[in-house]
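DATA SHEET
Item: assembly model
Revision: 1
Owner: S.N.
Input lines:
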Amino acid sequence: MGDKTNENIVIVGAGESGIRAAENIVNKGWEGKIIVIDKEPNTPYQRPPLSKEVLSNKDQLKSLPTTGYDQLVNENVEFFLGTQVLDIDRKNKIVHLESTKIPYSKLLLATGATPRILPGFEPDETRNILYLRTIKDSLRIKESLGKGKKIIIVGGGFIGLEVAASARQQGSDVLIVEAAQRLLQRAVPKEIAVKINELHKQNGVEILYDTTIKTTIEENEEKYLELSSGRTEAFDALIIGIGAQPNITLAQESNLEIENGIKVNCNLQTSDPNIFACGDCCFFPNDAFGGQYLRLESWRNAQEQGEFVAESILGINDTYNRIPWFWSDQYDKTLQIAGLPHLGETLIYRQVSEGNDIYFHFSKEKKLVGVSGFGSNKIAKQIKIAEKLMEKQAIIEPEELRKPDVNLKALLKQYQLQ
Amino acid sequence: METKVWIEACMFDDIDEEDLVRFDYGDRTFAIYRTEKDEIYATDGLCTHEQIHLEDGLVMGKTIECPKHNGKFDFTTGEAKRAPVCINLKTHSTKVENGTVYLLLSEEQ
């Protein structure tokens, strides 16, 4: 690589994506410095447990630190935590922090996303209007849960549903208010949404569809929420999970190209060749789906893009084509999705075993474009095989997968031989 | 002191080609793998990331992928191969006699 010892790779964001990038840059033998900056003061941590185990289990904080962080510290990766990046001087290749400035040869923006704020319901701890993104948010929500506490959750997306499950496990009364006519409109097929609706009802959650929230009313130290239906509900905490938006301010102020996120090419390189972006903040083309531009908010995407972008930064050119994958845990059930189910036009059902259901999503051209499963970990094998079939751009007669005796792995082997 | 003994675990035919089965022994749990070449390997049964049982994971070649968070291990060596796992999986010696699979396990005495 030549003498790189005086060169810096600067990473903004110590979330999953930033850490995986740093890790892979180290693994690839980079001899220069690596500097990771994050505005959060905490040791880098994993976010998936924030809506699940952290809310329902005391001991979870022990296993929260991001795996691999300790090794990075040992590898002399330098961390500036609790530190804001004020701006990027692209011309001189310098990032300005409050206390210092750091030159870079390559810069990675792994700035993540921030909860979308519902106008009129800005986060307000004193009024118990709460959002979830950070460990601080999660611990604050946890404080508000407990036996008999009235929790209203706005938004029946994954965050809302996972928080609802955790809140029920803590004995809270839970009401979910969803603006759409069903749960997870774009994310999962109706068949799975119906099952998730059932699961929450069985666990004592009330779900209101086609409903929005209007205003909060405080009376004699009691808090009430007025709904679009006219109904008024008392609450102890209002938890809002209506999606997230990419953190693009820094990129925007640096005049990088922005669309639904920081726009990058197939190498995850921004409109400035020395600046890259990965994870929740980036809007990227996915070659596995014909170069379609996507922005994904998921742990696995954050990991895979972090790993991938490390190589791009080091000058290894490849085309990003990983299959999106996502999971959610609610109560004792799990849901897994791979690919882009919403591109599917034909839905094929396959039962793995009692209570373990898989749906394959096919495009008009009989290309497998997505798979979604609901049940226990027993769904995982078929989801993973489907994921590998998608990597192979498999064209399959959809009806074949309906047949219980068709062995998915054998099918995959055929594609691997081709 | 620690001694190791061969423990009868399962029948060779219980394991599909390029797949694994779970084997519980006392309060311990193991994963026993059969490769495409009919070799048998064994590791501890739980992923080193969040203690998820590997029995529902996918075996491809020499790799086991955790059913939950997609960590990967080479089950022939136990080596952690993909984040989020970074701690290797413990492996155990195996033998097959008359169609029965045995694991070499330590017995606390």
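QC remark: Chain B touches chain A at residues 18, 49-50, 52-53, 56-58, 60, 65, 67-70, 83-86 (CB under 8 Å).
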